[in-house]
Design goal:
By secondary structure, the chain is α+β, with helices and mostly antiparallel strands. 26% of the residues lie in helices and 24% in strands. The longest helix is centred in the first third of the chain and has 18 residues.
């Protein structure tokens, strides 16, 4: 008898739950988050950052980067592999052979996944020639 009363009570309450407007779980956003901090540091791995910008790419490009649209497009073109930023160096540019390292980093979230990327160049000229005008690190 108790089981029958519980079943009848539950069946009677189900329509009321729908009428009271119980919210269904909805995604917080239609866009996967993409927010990164891009930084340049003179020196090797433990160098102090000299320049840094923030960049958020979804739903619109914004942040402290001077060209957020261009930087977001450059990062999107990598397909998630930031080493692709280094894929089109200017072979016609001659740089001095002195060692004065410059390290660039990208840390944050890209399309919902955590990223932490770093690359060290032998000097600023090599960095500029390798990035070849890429908007991501043009700040």
């Amino acid at each position: 008898m108790r089981h029958r009363i519980a079943a009848v009570t539950a069946a009677a309450l189900l329509p009321l739950a729908g009428a009271t407007g119980i919210a269904e779980a909805q995604p917080a956003s239609l866009y996967a988050p993409s927010a990164v901090v891009l930084a340049v540091a003179p020196g090797g791995d433990d160098a102090a950052v000299s320049r840094a910008v923030t960049l958020s790419c979804a739903p619109t490009a914004q942040g402290t980067h001077p060209d957020p649209q261009g930087a977001c497009a450059a990062l999107a073109a990598t397909g998630g592999s930031l080493n692709q930023l280094l894929a089109a160096p200017d072979r016609g540019r001659a740089c001095p052979m002195h060692y004065d390292p410059v390290t660039i980093t990208a840390d944050g979230v890209w399309k919902g996944g955590r990223i932490s990327w770093k690359h060290t160049f032998s000097n600023a000229c090599t960095m500029s020639a390798t990035l070849n005008g890429n908007a991501a690190f043009s700040f």
